Automatic annotation (TrEMBL):
PANTHER family: EXODEOXYRIBONUCLEASE 7 LARGE SUBUNIT. One of its GO terms (biological process) is DNA catabolic process. This is Exodeoxyribonuclease 7 large subunit. Its main location: cytoplasm. Signal peptide: none annotated. One of its GO terms (molecular function) is nucleic acid binding. It is found in: Cytoplasm. The keyword Translocase does not apply.
Length: 469
C-alpha cells in the first residue's frame, strides 16, 4: 500500500490551499460524473415531510444506510405516500450536499419493491399486443346508442357492481342487466374473466358488455393485465367498455376494449344514455315536429287561399294577359320599324362608300402606261448590268484558261498513270512521260533529270508526236 503521508520533500514544496466550499463542489462534481442514474433498493427510515414539500428519509439494509432527498416536484408525481418501514426501489442520482458536506442520494422516482417487475411485464405485454395490432383504433367498435340490455363482467361482492347497478338504475331504468359473475382478483381470476367474456359473446343476451372492478394496487388489478383477457375482449362480438380501477389506473384490458372508462361509474354512464335526457330530447323533438307540422299546414292553407283567389276571377286573369299581349305587339311593331330604319341607313352608307371606291379608267390607264415605261427602263438597265458582269466573268475565265497558258509556249507533263508531274525529282531516267502542247501532244522517255537552284530541267527523248487533225 503506498504511503499517503507527504514526505519531507513534499512538505518543503508549498501546496495550494483551497476553501471548503470549493472542495465540496469538486467532490460533488466527481460523484455525479462517476455515478449515472441507478436504482437502489432499501427500507425507508427517518422519514420527514418538510413544509416546503420536500421529503427527507434514509434508505437502509442490514449493513448500511444512506441519506436521501425527494424534492417536491418529484414527490407530487409519485402517486402514493412514503411511510417508514416500506421497502422501495428508488431511481437516484449520487451527489453531495455541499453546505453540510453530507453524502446523499437525490431521488428522481420510486416504486414499491416488486412493482417494478410487474410494471416491466405490463410494458412488455403491451408492446407485444400493440405490434400485433390488437389496440388499433380502426378495430374499435362503436357503442350502441340505445342498448336494451347491458352485460356486466365483475364479482358479485365488488363495490364496482353496486356502483354500476345504482348508476344504471338512476340513469336508465329501462335498460335490462345481465351479470356474468367472476373472480376479479387472485389466482385464476384472469382465466375466469376471459371465460365470462367468451360466455357473454356466445350467449348474445345483451348488446353491450362492461368489464369492471374497483381500484387497488397494481397487484390487485393484475388479473386485467393478462393476455388471455385482452384477446377475449378483442374476440368478443359485443362492444366492450373497460372500467377498471380509478382514473390513474391503466390496464391491458383498457387498451384492448372498444371504450375505456376512468371508473366503473363512468362505464355505466357511457353504456346507456340518461333516461331524463332522452325524455327531454324526445319532448323537444315532439314539440319541434308539432311546430313544423303546424307551419306546413299554415303554408299549405295560405297557398290554397292564393290559388282559390286566382280561380275566382278568370276574366281578370285573361284580361291581364290580353293587355300583356297588346304591349308585346306594340313593342314588336316599334322594333320592326326601328330595325328597318337602321337597315335603310346602313344601305345608304354602303352605297356611298361603293361609289367613292369605284375605279377611274382614264386615270388607271395613265398609271398603267407609267408603270410600263418604268418596267422597260428597269429591264434595260438590268440587262446591261448582267451583260457587263458576263463580260467580266468571261475575261476572268479566259485569263485562267490552261489553253491560254499553253499558247504562250508552256506545256504540261504527265506520267504513265496520267498524273501531272510538278517536280523533276519524281521522274527517273527511262521513265515514259506525255507532253501536252497547245495543239497536240508527244510521247517521250526521260534521259536525264537535272535540278538547279530549285528549278528542275528534264531532257526528254521524243519518241513520237501526235497532233490533232
Amino acid at each position: 500500500m503506498p504511503d499517503l503521508l507527504p514526505n519531507s520533500a513534499d512538505l518543503a514544496t508549498p501546496l495550494p490551499v483551497i476553501p471548503v466550499s470549493l472542495l465540496n463542489r469538486l467532490a460533488r462534481e466527481r460523484l455525479e460524473a462517476a455515478f449515472p442514474l441507478c436504482w437502489v433498493a432499501g427500507e425507508v427510515s427517518n422519514l420527514s415531510h418538510a413544509s416546503s414539500g420536500h421529503v427527507y428519509f434514509s434508505l437502509k439494509d442490514s449493513a448500511a444506510q444512506v441519506r436521501c432527498v425527494l424534492f417536491r416536484s418529484r414527490a407530487q408525481l409519485l402517486g402514493w405516500r412514503l411511510e417508514n418501514g416500506q421497502h422501495i426501489e428508488a431511481c437516484v442520482l449520487v451527489t453531495l450536499y455541499e453546505v453540510r458536506g453530507d453524502f446523499q442520494l437525490t431521488v428522481e422516482a420510486a416504486r414499491r419493491t416488486g412493482i417494478g417487475n410487474l410494471y416491466d411485464q405490463f410494458l412488455r405485454l403491451k408492446d407485444k399486443l400493440a405490434r400485433e395490432g390488437l389496440f388499433d383504433s380502426t378495430a374499435k367498435r362503436p357503442l350502441p346508442a340505445f342498448p336494451r340490455r347491458v352485460g356486466i363482467v365483475t364479482s358479485l361482492q365488488a363495490a364496482a357492481l353496486h356502483d354500476v347497478l345504482s348508476t344504471l338504475r338512476r340513469r336508465a331504468g329501462q335498460v335490462g342487466i345481465v351479470i356474468y359473475p367472476t373472480q376479479v382478483q387472485g389466482d385464476g381470476a384472469a382465466s375466469q374473466i376471459a371465460a365470462a367474456i367468451r360466455c357473454a359473446g356466445e350467449r348474445r343476451e345483451c348488446e353491450l358488455l362492461i368489464v369492471c372492478r374497483g381500484g387497488g394496487s397494481i397487484e390487485d388489478l393484475w388479473a386485467f393485465n393478462d393476455e388471455a383477457v385482452a384477446r377475449a375482449i378483442r374476440a368478443c362480438p359485443l362492444p366492450v367498455i373497460s372500467g377498471v380501477g380509478h382514473e390513474t389506473d391503466f390496464t391491458i384490458a383498457d387498451f384492448a376494449a372498444d371504450q375505456r372508462a376512468p371508473t366503473p361509474t363512468a362505464a355505466a354512464e357511457l353504456a346507456a344514455p340518461e333516461q331524463a335526457a332522452l325524455l327531454a330530447r324526445l319532448a323537444a323533438c315532439r314539440f319541434a315536429l308539432r311546430r313544423q307540422i303546424e307551419q306546413n299546414l299554415n303554408q299549405r292553407g295560405q297557398q290554397l287561399d292564393w290559388l282559390a283567389h286566382r280561380l275566382q276571377r278568370p276574366a281578370q286573369y285573361l284580361a291581364r294577359h290580353q293587355d300583356h299581349l297588346h304591349k308585346l305587339q306594340r313593342r314588336l311593331g316599334a322594333g320592326l320599324l326601328q330595325a328597318s330604319a337602321q337597315a335603310r341607313a346602313t344601305l345608304v352608307s354602303v352605297t356611298r362608300r361603293l361609289l367613292l371606291s369605284r375605279p377611274d379608267p382614264v386615270r388607271q390607264a395613265g398609271h398603267l402606261e407609267a408603270l410600263a415605261a418604268r418596267l422597260c427602263s428597269a429591264w434595260q438597265t438590268t440587262t446591261q448590268a448582267r451583260y457587263a458582269d458576263l463580260d467580266r466573268l468571261a475575261a476572268g475565265l479566259a485569263h485562267l484558261n490552261p489553253a491560254a497558258v499553253l499558247a504562250r509556249g508552256y506545256c504540261v507533263v504527265s506520267n504513265a498513270q496520267g498524273q501531272i508531274v510538278r517536280e523533276s525529282k519524281v521522274l527517273e531516267p527511262g521513265q515514259q512521260i506525255a507532253v501536252f502542247f497547245q495543239r497536240g501532244r508527244a510521247e517521250a522517255a526521260v534521259l536525264t533529270v537535272f535540278e538547279d537552284d530549285g528549278i528542275a530541267f528534264a531532257a526528254p527523248a521524243i519518241a513520237s508526236a501526235t497532233s490533232p487533225e
